[in-house]
Amino acid sequence: MATEPTTRLTIRPVQPEDHDGWLPLWLGYNAFYGRSGDTAPAEAQTALTWSRFFQALEPMEALVAEAEGRLVGLAHIIFHRNTSLPGASCYLQDLFAAPELRGRGIGRALIEAVYARAREAGAGRVYWNTHETNHAAMRLYDQVARKSGFIVYRHDL
Which positions ≥6 away from 1 have C-beta within 8 Å? Predict the structure, then answer.
Protein backbone atom coordinates (compact mmCIF):
# COMPACT_ATOMS: atom_id res chain seq x y z
CA MET A 1 0.00 0.00 0.00
CA ALA A 2 1.33 3.44 -0.94
CA THR A 3 2.34 5.85 1.77
CA GLU A 4 1.48 9.51 1.36
CA PRO A 5 4.36 11.99 1.18
CA THR A 6 5.48 13.11 4.60
CA THR A 7 6.15 16.60 3.29
CA ARG A 8 4.31 18.97 1.00
CA LEU A 9 4.84 18.11 -2.64
CA THR A 10 4.84 20.82 -5.30
CA ILE A 11 4.51 20.02 -9.00
CA ARG A 12 5.65 22.81 -11.31
CA PRO A 13 7.27 23.51 -14.67
CA VAL A 14 11.01 23.05 -14.64
CA GLN A 15 13.12 26.22 -14.46
CA PRO A 16 16.65 26.84 -15.79
CA GLU A 17 18.00 26.97 -12.23
CA ASP A 18 16.69 23.41 -11.63
CA HIS A 19 19.40 21.78 -13.76
CA ASP A 20 21.50 20.48 -10.85
CA GLY A 21 18.43 18.88 -9.24
CA TRP A 22 17.03 17.56 -12.53
CA LEU A 23 20.26 15.93 -13.73
CA PRO A 24 20.44 13.14 -11.09
CA LEU A 25 16.77 12.32 -11.74
CA TRP A 26 17.40 12.21 -15.51
CA LEU A 27 20.43 9.97 -15.04
CA GLY A 28 18.48 7.79 -12.59
CA TYR A 29 15.63 7.46 -15.08
CA ASN A 30 18.03 6.34 -17.79
CA ALA A 31 19.83 3.94 -15.45
CA PHE A 32 16.48 2.39 -14.48
CA TYR A 33 16.04 1.44 -18.14
CA GLY A 34 19.60 0.12 -18.45
CA ARG A 35 21.10 3.23 -19.99
CA SER A 36 24.10 3.95 -17.78
CA GLY A 37 27.86 3.89 -18.14
CA ASP A 38 28.72 3.16 -21.77
CA THR A 39 25.05 3.09 -22.77
CA ALA A 40 24.05 6.32 -21.00
CA PRO A 41 22.84 9.19 -23.16
CA ALA A 42 25.76 11.25 -24.42
CA GLU A 43 26.35 14.51 -22.57
CA ALA A 44 25.42 16.34 -25.77
CA GLN A 45 22.03 14.57 -25.85
CA THR A 46 21.41 15.38 -22.20
CA ALA A 47 22.26 19.03 -22.87
CA LEU A 48 19.99 19.06 -25.94
CA THR A 49 17.11 17.52 -23.98
CA TRP A 50 17.54 20.08 -21.21
CA SER A 51 17.63 22.99 -23.67
CA ARG A 52 14.43 21.87 -25.40
CA PHE A 53 12.40 22.51 -22.25
CA PHE A 54 13.11 26.23 -22.63
CA GLN A 55 12.65 26.74 -26.39
CA ALA A 56 9.38 28.52 -27.16
CA LEU A 57 8.65 26.62 -30.38
CA GLU A 58 9.64 23.20 -29.03
CA PRO A 59 6.65 20.91 -28.24
CA MET A 60 8.58 19.34 -25.33
CA GLU A 61 8.01 20.40 -21.72
CA ALA A 62 9.10 19.20 -18.29
CA LEU A 63 7.36 19.17 -14.94
CA VAL A 64 9.18 18.49 -11.70
CA ALA A 65 8.09 17.39 -8.25
CA GLU A 66 9.70 19.27 -5.39
CA ALA A 67 9.67 18.44 -1.68
CA GLU A 68 11.59 20.30 1.01
CA GLY A 69 13.47 22.34 -1.59
CA ARG A 70 14.70 19.24 -3.45
CA LEU A 71 13.57 17.86 -6.81
CA VAL A 72 12.21 14.36 -6.26
CA GLY A 73 10.54 13.55 -9.58
CA LEU A 74 10.19 14.50 -13.21
CA ALA A 75 7.76 14.18 -16.09
CA HIS A 76 8.75 15.01 -19.67
CA ILE A 77 5.90 15.54 -22.13
CA ILE A 78 5.62 16.12 -25.86
CA PHE A 79 2.58 17.63 -27.59
CA HIS A 80 1.84 16.54 -31.14
CA ARG A 81 -0.94 16.30 -33.70
CA ASN A 82 -2.87 13.10 -34.20
CA THR A 83 -4.83 11.80 -37.18
CA SER A 84 -7.67 10.52 -34.99
CA LEU A 85 -8.29 13.59 -32.79
CA PRO A 86 -9.04 17.21 -33.68
CA GLY A 87 -6.71 18.55 -30.98
CA ALA A 88 -3.23 17.66 -29.86
CA SER A 89 -2.16 14.52 -28.05
CA CYS A 90 0.22 14.61 -25.10
CA TYR A 91 2.87 11.93 -24.93
CA LEU A 92 4.27 11.37 -21.44
CA GLN A 93 7.73 10.31 -22.53
CA ASP A 94 9.57 10.11 -19.21
CA LEU A 95 8.26 9.72 -15.65
CA PHE A 96 10.58 9.17 -12.70
CA ALA A 97 10.51 9.49 -8.92
CA ALA A 98 13.54 9.35 -6.64
CA PRO A 99 13.91 5.65 -5.75
CA GLU A 100 14.04 6.24 -2.00
CA LEU A 101 10.67 8.07 -2.14
CA ARG A 102 8.69 5.69 -4.32
CA GLY A 103 5.25 4.71 -3.15
CA ARG A 104 4.57 8.11 -1.63
CA GLY A 105 2.39 9.59 -4.38
CA ILE A 106 5.02 11.39 -6.46
CA GLY A 107 4.26 9.49 -9.67
CA ARG A 108 0.52 9.92 -9.23
CA ALA A 109 0.92 13.66 -8.55
CA LEU A 110 3.09 14.07 -11.66
CA ILE A 111 0.59 12.17 -13.83
CA GLU A 112 -2.29 14.30 -12.50
CA ALA A 113 -0.25 17.44 -13.25
CA VAL A 114 0.40 16.15 -16.79
CA TYR A 115 -3.35 15.65 -17.21
CA ALA A 116 -3.97 19.23 -16.06
CA ARG A 117 -1.29 20.62 -18.38
CA ALA A 118 -2.69 18.62 -21.32
CA ARG A 119 -6.21 19.94 -20.63
CA GLU A 120 -4.83 23.48 -20.47
CA ALA A 121 -3.14 22.95 -23.86
CA GLY A 122 -6.35 21.61 -25.41
CA ALA A 123 -5.05 18.07 -25.82
CA GLY A 124 -7.60 15.30 -26.17
CA ARG A 125 -5.42 12.48 -24.86
CA VAL A 126 -2.43 11.71 -22.67
CA TYR A 127 -0.64 8.45 -23.32
CA TRP A 128 2.61 6.69 -22.44
CA ASN A 129 4.41 3.35 -22.54
CA THR A 130 6.30 1.45 -19.93
CA HIS A 131 8.48 -1.60 -20.03
CA GLU A 132 6.63 -4.88 -19.63
CA THR A 133 8.70 -5.67 -16.52
CA ASN A 134 7.88 -2.41 -14.73
CA HIS A 135 5.19 -4.01 -12.56
CA ALA A 136 5.35 -1.44 -9.75
CA ALA A 137 4.63 1.40 -12.17
CA MET A 138 1.87 -0.59 -13.88
CA ARG A 139 0.04 -0.94 -10.55
CA LEU A 140 -0.21 2.87 -10.46
CA TYR A 141 -0.95 3.21 -14.18
CA ASP A 142 -3.84 0.76 -13.92
CA GLN A 143 -5.40 3.12 -11.35
CA VAL A 144 -5.00 6.37 -13.30
CA ALA A 145 -5.43 5.29 -16.94
CA ARG A 146 -6.52 2.38 -19.10
CA LYS A 147 -4.45 0.14 -21.31
CA SER A 148 -4.89 1.02 -24.97
CA GLY A 149 -4.38 -2.49 -26.27
CA PHE A 150 -1.62 -1.34 -28.59
CA ILE A 151 1.83 -2.92 -28.65
CA VAL A 152 4.76 -0.67 -29.51
CA TYR A 153 7.09 -1.65 -32.37
CA ARG A 154 10.32 0.18 -33.04
CA HIS A 155 13.12 0.19 -35.54
CA ASP A 156 16.19 2.24 -34.68
CA LEU A 157 17.94 3.88 -37.62
Answer: none
Count how many residues are written for the chain.
157
Three-state secondary-structure class, residue 76: strand
> What's the sign of the alpha-carbon dihedral 87, 55, 73, 68?
negative
Give me the sheet containing 125-127, strands edge to edge: 9-13, 60-67, 70-80, 89-97, 125-127
pTM: 0.91
Helix (H) or strand (E) holding 26, with range, is helix 19-32
Give the pLDDT confidence of 120-139 residue by residue, as tens digits: 999 999 999 999 999 999 99
Could you list the beta-strand ranges (E) of the chain: 9-13, 60-67, 70-80, 89-97, 125-127
User: Residue 16, Cα to own-chain centre: how many angstroms?
Assistant: 17
CA distance 135 to 150: 18
